Amino acid sequence: MKYGARNQLIGRVKGIKQGTLMSQVTLEIPANSQMSSVMTLDSLEELGIKEGDKVQIIVKAVNVLLAKD
Amino acid sequence: MKYGARNQLIGRVKGIKQGTLMSQVTLEIPANSQMSSVMTLDSLEELGIKEGDKVQIIVKAVNVLLAKD
Amino acid sequence: MKYGARNQLIGRVKGIKQGTLMSQVTLEIPANSQMSSVMTLDSLEELGIKEGDKVQIIVKAVNVLLAKD
Amino acid sequence: MKYGARNQLIGRVKGIKQGTLMSQVTLEIPANSQMSSVMTLDSLEELGIKEGDKVQIIVKAVNVLLAKD
Amino acid sequence: MKYGARNQLIGRVKGIKQGTLMSQVTLEIPANSQMSSVMTLDSLEELGIKEGDKVQIIVKAVNVLLAKD
Amino acid sequence: MKYGARNQLIGRVKGIKQGTLMSQVTLEIPANSQMSSVMTLDSLEELGIKEGDKVQIIVKAVNVLLAKD
User: Fold this and answer.
1) pTM above 0.90, yes or no
2) Nearest neighbour of F20 by CB, restricted to D1, D3, D20
3) Would F21 be classed as within a structural domain?
């Protein structure tokens, strides 16, 4: 599968928190870094992931903000 | 500085492409991974970054999509 | 492939416009409706699409705005 | 009303789920397709929609991701 | 018209820059503040705005990042 | 700190609502206007804000929608 997005990383599911409507997935990426994704519970269920699963992390470049001091 | 975003990584500017109105910044993050940010040329100028600079990469978790096969 | 996004439609590439850095892809979806995606030229090239190709259209529900009069 | 967004579809409200802070609206669009929008409960209330209502669905093209296999 | 978004401001078009594919609209909001919107040239044309026009500025709350030192 | 974003306003925290997983922060900006940000409870905690605090509001221009009648 190919994606029209500049940011494509591989991560491992480290934790899943379920809210009333939304869910938050914490991911381990290489070099001990961490990322997170928020999606609906419906999407989480459809995605069918559990702790330890390998997932693709996709972010469009327009949604990446840079800061510098 | 603290940010209300789940994804905060440190990257190094690897390349900058300037279009007519927009610009695209390629970033090296640990473990030989790569990320990209697209912003206006005005924002690029205000940010004042050049190749090799260390920058903060910020992405809100709602803008992170997960995929799994 | 499964996606952590509520909006997943199938479309056909109807037109591709290339700018200096960005590109704009127009898509036909069923019932004579039309959608569009903007991505970098780099992402367009990596995606490798051409007119007539069938593609998956993915939008996270948080990026969908509703209006009503 | 005119919008500065490439994606403008007409949908009908099929279901509304209310969480603690957020809400999720499911929409029917032509050809038996379905879309969803996530917004705050405050926005849902202000929008004042109920099942069966016709609404305008607006998505900026930069938030549309394409995938192809 | 009602919108499912928490951020709705009124602005006046102060400047329009046209790129090859994208455009950038600068807006004056009360108290001498300034905002900007980036959209495709196609959307700009459809919107039909010119300097001095009053426009509605809409931003979903999930796309608003807070920072604090 | 410098940001690669066209929209940077200063606001004062007026109210914080906490959901199960997400939170919603209402902000006062000059001229009696109001903005809102939605983030995870984790991000809210990390940000460490309370009513009355001055915060920086950052929005990328691609996430700003214009409407005109």
Assistant:
1) yes
2) D20
3) yes
